[in-house]
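Why show two proteins at once? Because comparison is the fastest way to build intuition. When a single record is shown, students tend to memorize it. When two are placed side by side, the eye starts asking what differs. So, the first record is below.
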Amino acid sequence: MTDISGISGNQLRLFIEKVECLEEEKNDLMENLRDVFAEAKSVGFDVKIMKQIIKLRKMKKEDVVEQEELLDIYKAALGMLPSFESLDEQAA
């Protein structure tokens, strides 16, 4: 290949081939991930919850704590958490 307007055809071809190879590897990895999730689901695990756990494990601990606290505040504001009074009534 030749250089055209300062662009090396060989260098460009090598980059394109690298990207194509990586895209193929990415597709293979995605297929493997789907297989693992399907296997987990087949033995009774909830894939949606597993994905949430994986996301949480990638986060910093303080970010997880902050997110959970904020979620509890929002849930309480919407009346989605049991009140302390109803917990006391259940204990009695």
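Second record. Ask yourself what differs from the first in the token line.
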Amino acid sequence: MALMFQRLARNFIKNGYYPTDADTMTRVLSALVAPKTGQLRIIDPCAGEGTALAECKHHLGADRVEAFGVEYDNERAWHAKQILDRCIHGDIQDCVLGQRQYGLLWLNPPYGDLVSDKGSTGDQCGGKGRKRLEKLFYNLTISALQFEGVMVLIIPQYTLDKELVGWITTHFHRVEVFKAPEQQFKQIVLFGVRRRTKEARRDVSGAKDRLLAIVNGELEPEALPQAWTSEPYVVPASVGGDAKFSYVKMDSAQLADEIHRNPCLWDQFDLKFRSIALETTRRPLRKMSNWHLALALAAGQVSGMVRSQSGQQFLIKGGTHKEKVRTISQEVDDENRLTSTTVLTDRFVPVIRAIDFTPGDNYARVVEIR
């Protein structure tokens, strides 16, 4: 099967990003099918340039599938926005995903050990096992997959441990694991179908024993077949209303893009931006120092409509938010196993954002002052 979007991927390896190669992609798609009727939702929480999920959308039926992605890297995220239905540029930890609303979870997460403060990631990385980025992404996104939804998990074989095996066999049935055809990073491809909560204690048909045998080195996974001959994995039709898929932080570039793509936002303008506090705020008695300005920003008091002497008018909003500075170091040992260490550091940033409401070419332009 010819892949439509793979040629768009630049396939560079950077900051723990390892895009799915074309051979693995083709073999995985041969195992996935769409139901006869209904609309589908699919999601990739680490979408990269979006090509893998775009291939899934095309394979399952482009006119029936809505593809959602999240990507941390700016360049890759804006590339993904062009070929996916919806994509957020941001940290998955700051995204709000609807529970049990997606029929396919494509999970090829960043690889590496996780070093961070417990308050931001520790509670989501699991219990006593090794803290890994793969586990963090699993725990943050597994609840988004609907019952009988399909997960495709692509991770290095050496990251599969007893803790992760326990989670997978509790959450999924029809669990199958194969060795990826591309073995530069010793990857495995794991399929599973999300089981209902009440079924969690039923017999898992030996899946746990097989996975533990792989963990202990007693069993070597078979290679992912070129053509899928077993029962296919059916991606179920979506259930419920509109999918919940949002970002908790305001990003000026994405806000401007959303305004141009979705003008119905302005039907709720007063509801979203009107505040009683704006009607009672008084101007300070004297010019504020930088220290006073920082306090006002942190309190959200720098806001409202302003007009310049030249006639320009802006809706402004000030605030202070926390950003994470991510530092990644990588090492490859003698056995070609890659170890990545990620450190997240908090930084508080004061910001003033403005939307230009001056009639003309710059109308709805978003301006940001840091």
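One difference worth noting in the second protein: Residues 250-369 form one domain.
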